[in-house]
Design a protein that fits this description.
By secondary structure, the chain is of the alpha/beta class. The protein has a single domain, classed as Dihydropteroate synthase-like (TIM Barrel). Helices cover about 40% and strands about 15% of the residues. The longest helix has 27 residues. The radius of gyration is 18 Å and the shape is globular.
Length: about 300
Amino acid sequence: MPESPVPHTMILRARRFEFAFPRPALLMGIVNVTPDSFYPGCRFATRDAAVAQALELAAEGADIIDIGGESSRPKSQPVSEAEEMRRVIPVLESLAGAVSVPLSIDTVKPAVAREALRAGASILNDIGANREADEMWLLAAESGAAYVAVHMQGSPATMQENPRYDDVVAEVGGFFENRLQRLRSCGVNAEQVVLDVGIGFGKRPGENLRLIAELGRFTKWGRPLLLGASRKSFMEAAVGAGVEDRLAPSLACACWGVQKGARIIRCHDVAGTRHAVRMTEALMEQQANAAYITFDR
C-alpha cells in the first residue's frame, strides 16, 4: 500500500454541515461526561461542567465538539444505554443551540447514537466499527450524519491484553477497505465517512508509532483521516511522559499527522493544538510555494 498524496479536493458532509478540503485541519475538542476517562483533566461529571468545557473549547477554536459518556480506556467496562444517555443527552441538548460547530457523539451503541442525533449531534464517532451488525451504519445512512470508522482490535475491556499484528499498517488498511465496502452497501455516502487508525485501541506502543509515522499511506481512499493521539499512553513508552506531561508529545503527533495527511485532529488541548497545527500548515504552505517557484524558474 504505497503512500499517496492527499487529494486536491474532498468533501465531508455531516447533516447540515459541509467541509471542503483542502482547508486548515479541523480540530475536534474532547468533552468526556465520565468519572473514569484516562485523562483527569477531561472528566466532567455534571451537565453544567461539561457544557462549560465545550463552550470554552469552541471559543479556543474547536471546529467540532466530541461528547462521550462511556470511557474507552483499556480495561474499562461498558455502562448501560440508560446511563450513557443520562450523561450525554442533556449536554447535547444544551449545546445544540449554543454553538455553531458540529457536535459529535462518541458511542458504540446505536440507541445512544439515535438519541444523540435527535438531540443535535451531526457526527457519529464509532470505536465499534469492527462490529458485524449494521444498525449503526444504517443510522448514518438514514440521518446523513458523518461517520468516523475507528480501527480497534477487540473491545476496550480486552484490547490491550495481547494485541497481535503481522503488519499493522496493512491490516488497518484492509479494515478500512472492508468497512468502506460495508458502509456503501448500507447506503452511507462516501462523503460522510472519516477514517481513524485507532491509536491506542488494541495496539502496542511501537504499532501506534508506526501508524502515526506512516499515516500518509491511508490517504489513498480520498477520505479525511482523523488522528486521535492526544495524551495517550504510548507516549510514556516512547518518551517517558506521564499523562499530565503529554501535551508536548501530543502536539508533536498532531503536527506530524497534519504533514502526513490528517485532516481532523482530536485533542484535549485545543488552544495549544491550534497554534501548533496552524504553524505547521504555514510552514507547509511556504515549502510548497518555494518548490513551485523553483520549478517555475
